[in-house]
Amino acid sequence: MNTPMDPRRLFDLSGRVALVTGAGRGIGARTAAVLAGRGARVAVNDLSLDRARTVAKSVGDAGDDAIAVTADVTDLASVTSMVQEVVERLGPVDILVNNAGVPASGFAMKEFTATERQDWDPYISINVYGVLNCTHSVVGSMVERGWGRVITIISDSARAGERLMAAYAASKAAAAGFSRALAKEVGRAGVTCNCISLGWVPHDAVDLGSDDVKHALRNYAVKRPGRPDDVAAAAVWLASTEASWVTGQTVPVNGGYVMT
Questions:
Q1: What integer is the mean pLDDT of 95-121?
Q2: Which residue in 123, 129, 168, 257 is the catalytic one?
Q3: Which residue stretches of 187-242 are H helix?
Q4: Is 123 among the residues known to form the active site?
């Protein structure tokens, strides 16, 4: 007989260990903080250890438990070493949030015919190999222990198609396909794999009254950009016991930009 859930304890992550990649700022930083606020012990990963330490300190100052770890997600050996450190300091990883992505400074919008191989490599390295490396390093332990959550941040460009973003869209679509396939492999062991597909979530505050913002939002049902809190809330739900029957899915957090 199933025990009814206690609504007072919804989304309680107490006792869980979470690893959030690319969490030195923006969406990753907020997701790490919110997971910690729900009781998880959180490893804050970033390529910059200083950024990771700043976020981990902020989480600690709020009374929650976090450590800073660094690794290049495109390097499997680096990721393996990082995961071992997390296990030694916090315990086995129960929740992985694949959030690391190409920074805005490295994002070039071009017609595909105007791109070269070197233009594609960052997207494939981070958005595909980064996801595979991090997931491979933790999912075996999840299966052995009979519980786990793999949550990968993708983009609506992978679902809708966007001009000037072909290689980026391809990399995010690959991550989604990987997540669905893996979900079928590990679901029987109590491990779920899902994606969160984002619309426009700017890194900094924007002027909602500006013409540029109004133009960018013309195809959104909810007329505002996304916020890191929007993404963090979805991640907490997918990480929770309450989402244990949700796997192989892409959850849109996008203000209604794509409705399929």
A1: 91
A2: 168
A3: 211-216, 228-239
A4: no
